[in-house]
Structure prediction request, 115 residues.
Amino acid sequence: MTHRPRNLFEALPRVESGEDFESLLRLPGIHIERIVSSPRPEPVLYEQAWDEWVLLLDGEATLDLDGDLVRLRAGDHLLIPAGLPHRVLATSDEPRCLWLAVHLRNAPATSESAG
Prediction:
């Protein structure tokens, strides 16, 4: 095993629609991923069986958290509790949205969805 650091800001894909998900770490009970959003997010409704903490590293975004519109800018973070319906409504074009998402699985999930 090599101990070389990786950089979240390097080799960012240029996503034209939807989002690009890259798994950074997966261990029992936790999954960390880098997400790069296009300026045209797909309005996928997520309702996950686990908590998800998200940090917007760059860009601006608007989320729909079960009918509550939340605007985020670089540096903002929030916890999306398990079972809360949510979707990404809008993301900035320049800079593109770069996210760090931490999925916390306290109990075995019955089904998984990306996000």
